[in-house]
Amino acid sequence: MAGALVVPVRRADGSISSLQLIAAPETAARLKAAGRPAKLNLPGASLQGWHVVGDLAPGALVYLCEGIGQAWAAWKATGRPAVVCFGWGRVRTVATELRAADPSACLVVVPDVGKEPEAEALAQDLRIEYMAMPEGWPQNSDINDLAQRDGMDAVEALLSTPKAPAQRYKLLSASDLAALPPLAWRVRGVLPAVGLAGLYGPSASGKSFLALDMAAAIAEGARWFDCRTETAPVVYAALEGEGGFRLRVAAWEAHRGRGLPHSLHMLLQPFKLTDLRDVHDLAAVVPHGAVVFLDTLNRAAPTSDENSSKDMGEILEAAKHLQALIAGLVVLVHHTGKDATRGLRGHSSLFAAMDAAVEVSREGERREWRVAKSKDGADGEVKAFRLQVEMLGTDEYGDAITSCVVMRDKVCEEVQRAKLPAGGNQRLVLEALRPLFKEGQSGKPGAPPLRPCVELDAAVAAGSARLTCPTDKRNSRAREAITGLLSRGVLGLNEGWLWLA
């Protein structure tokens, strides 16, 4: 390496950690032809630090380059200091050390052609800037090549306009918020098009039948309980009761006289939500923007402790990862606990993490569902349904083969419509009570399961505040209105607790 250029590698304190020897052009050409490197580092010495072309000063603009050629070109063209990092793999380390030594310095990464994405990522991580070579240069070209072809003025022009990486956080004004697109619904007022949702209820409440009915409506874009749907591909993972699922599909088809929508697909194989490979393999066959029903969450996470915050956190992280991969909606079908009035079984973080939740309840043969949570819609509206038995044939012993389909309970809806408040005071009081019921307590004696209740005295106070009659008569008129609502069957009452009937 006689006649080689020697570049010292200096630590932050100025001491030399190593030397890099760069062969002269003629020697370098012969070495490359022989398959030998044209640059050598001092044997036995580790690279610690960098080399500066120019003078570093606090708060200075500094160019970070792979080698001495780029650094010299940057300094020569701009008069600003340039740091030799001794290889692309050391740029991040050097940038981090320089940033720690002088937080006020303006660091600019100067990559070769082809390394711009890595430079942008590095710049974003360290909150610094980067530049990119002009279009049309071949792979691995750098600013030294630009200087030799187009001169130092071209290099100066290029380095004078460094790029700032896209900011991770964007602050929005009120006008920015107003300009945002509206929430996209998959089932209007019930399920969003993108996110994580739940459909839950006690055993034998009909939640799986309801979930399949909803899935079919989404797949064919049909209205569901008078709610508009936006059609999308659907994947239904029947992880519980797989044997009877075929009959449920057959009952749906027999009742409607047509096959299931072509964009509704079933998964009957075991699937573990907390297994990363299972999540990726499922996402690979799910269409972009689809809705995935996991029925049930317990079967999708069989070894997890639902009551553990750690295990539930892992379940939610996996569900959100699946949702991100498919860019659609994941619906977790889940059970309530032994006490159905306490809602979803398991840790409270499950309900908190959901963008929407549908609660299914049953009292005898009466079944209903309601929107228990909707981040951008109205919750609390109740829809009644029933399960109608469909005859599918007979088995080899002559016994009937049956399953069920979901039917709207129109009789119940007509009864509800007939229970509208009669007088003006009744209407005013009922309007005042509706917000209270949304925040009410369930599980009160005599009330239907999961039905929110409010105390009678609180209801009287809220109702009287809404009335416009003389102040001294408002409490008595509010009680009269509540009595009228009770007599018409709009409200229920037991042991001092009111609920919407």
Using brief descriptors, characterize the structure shown.
501 residues, alpha/beta, five-stranded mixed beta sheet, 17 helices
Give a concise summary.
By secondary structure, the chain is an alpha/beta fold. 36% of the residues lie in helices and 23% in strands.
Question: Can you characterise this structure?
Answer:
- 36% of the residues lie in helices and 23% in strands.
- The protein is α/β, with parallel strands linked by helices.
- The chain has a 9-stranded mixed sheet, sandwiched between helices. Strands 4-6-5-7-8 form a 5-stranded mixed sheet, sandwiched between helices.
- A hairpin with a 2-residue loop joins strand 16 (356-363) and strand 17 (366-374).
- It starts with a strand and ends with a strand.
Helix content: 25-40%
Structural class: alpha/beta
Major β-sheet strand ordering = 13-12-14-15-11-16-17-18-19
Estimate the strand proportion: 15-25%
Distance between the termini: 94 Å
- By DSSP, the count of extended strands is 22
Largest sheet: 9 strands, mixed
Shape: elongated
Q: On the 0-100 scale, what is the average pLDDT?
A: 89
| Helical stretch tally | 17
